[in-house]
Amino acid sequence: xxxxxxxxxxxxxxxxxxxxxxxxxxxxxxxxxxxxxxxxxxxxxxxxxxxxxxxxxxxxxxxxxxxxxxxxxxxxxxxxxxxxxxxxxxxxxxxxxxxxxxxxxxxxxxxxxxxxxxxxxxxxxxxxxxxxxxxxxxxxxxxxxxxxxxxxxxxxxxxxxxxxxxxxxxxxxxxxxxxxxxxxxxxxxxxxxxxxxxxxxxxxxxxxxxxxxxxxxxxxxxxxxxxxxxxxxxxxxxxxxxxxxxxxxxxxxxxxxxxxxxxxxxxxxxxxxxxxxxxxxxxxxxxxxxxxxxxxxxxxxxxxxxxxxxxxxxxxxxxxxxxxxxxxxxxxxxxxxxxxxxxxxxxxxxxxxxxxxxxxxxxxxxxxxxxxxxxxxxxxxxxxxxxxxxxxxxxxxxxxxxxxxxxxxxxxxxxxxxxxxxxxxxxxxxxxxxxxxxxxxxxxxxxxxxxxxxxxxxxxxxxxxxxxxxxxxxxxxxxxxxxxxxxxxxxxxxxxxxxxxxxxxxxx
Length: 508
Ligand SMILES: Cc1ncc(COP(=O)(O)O)c(C=O)c1O
What we know:
Layout: E1 4-7, H1 9-17, H2 20-35, E2 40-42, H3 47-58, H4 64-72, E3 74-76, H5 89-98, E4 104-107, H6 111-116, E5 120-121, H7 123-133, H8 142-147, H9 149-162, H10 169-182, E6 186-190, H11 193-203, E7 211-215, H12 221-229, E8 232-236, H13 247-250, E9 258-264, H14 273-282, E10 286-290, E11 298-299, E12 302-303, E13 310-314, E14 328-332, H15 335-345, E15 349-351, E16 354-355, H16 366-376, H17 379-396, E17 412-413, E18 419-422, H18 426-435, H19 465-473, E19 474-477, H20 485-500
Helix pairs in contact: 1-2, 1-3, 1-4, 2-7, 9-16, 10-16, 11-12, 11-15
Bound molecules: pyridoxal-5'-phosphate.
Pyridoxal-5'-phosphate is lined by residues 192-194, 218-219, 221-222, 264, 290, 292-293, 314, 316, 326, 328.
């Protein structure tokens, strides 16, 4: 159902004040309307009315970011001619205007308006209504960017006006800021997460004839990075409890050709790095973190990115820290490696038009760096929101017998890139949720060793049974900083509804 939304004066003021519970509920209404590509209709008498009111409530109003946001997504409505019959003429005008539109709802907290206008509703009721009818997307980045509209536009202007678009000040500053965030000495911005891993491997002189240990349960990019260098990925099974590589199985996979181990921090949870680093030390191997899904996660208090010889990050838009396009980075404490990666990523060149190796073009661009700088400021808050959602899910699913919730190991502070459950009837549950308007995803439906791309390695169904079981049973529920607790409650109640059907009746 599509509504035409009207904000009355007091709703506008609450939105602009941006403080307290009511303001945050109204922001939720605002975001849900704007992300459905609708405009909000404002019937604000005039600036002369609204500013004195704002100033009287807030001392000296200066939240122009909010005002811009409101005006950029609003239409100012014309009011029809009316014969005044209500005691409050402003309310009657609002009601008469709303009446001219399809499915109008006036968002207001005003008791007089709520009792006199059949179009009026308070924001809590409205939110309940839309969550009941509106589908819940798996990941909606629009509200997130909506919230950052002004700083992102300013970042864009900064880059546009600088006249310098590749390897400039924004990249330099982002590299410093992200290195500081990861507590490493170096950060090199690159084109994407796959390149970040590939460049680390090349920087470590890994290539044809070498072997690199990788998890059997990961996104295929981890394996592809190895293959691009000419080396061979050697899979090791994960622990079923954490979904991350099982350190106890790593040593058995080491051969004279092994040069490195890639530990992936899957779904936001850090791999058990101490035993992995210990076995690597023993055999003189390099360790690389694939931190594409774990920006800000910690291992025994230390941030990912600083836990091995080097780490590769992806800033794909859906990641915890995402650009508005493709982007990636390498972090390391090894100055020599950092310099080499910078050179290889820039056509194999340190001095313009002098090429030491056959490099590639994989650079973080100024625009993405400027966006990432703004988004990095929000990462802590966004990760905390993800954690809150995960705790909500965990608590609600504690008594659901068929459903296996994610186990967080004691050493890790997960950043919940994905909330991944396991369920014996995964596909049926996913269909039931889809039919109820809730989007889910599978991370991932086919393990790398069974992908056509890797048929040359001759693995078969059954080669890596734990990874295969995971891929058959996992289901990712919606998760992200855009999500509201109302939406989470809707998802929880639908999962519980599914679970309440007797096993044989779950035919959906
Ligand atoms: C675990 C993992 N590694 C590597 C990558 C590759 O990152 P990108 O898409 O930026 O190339 C991804 C991205 O999805 C990933 O999830």
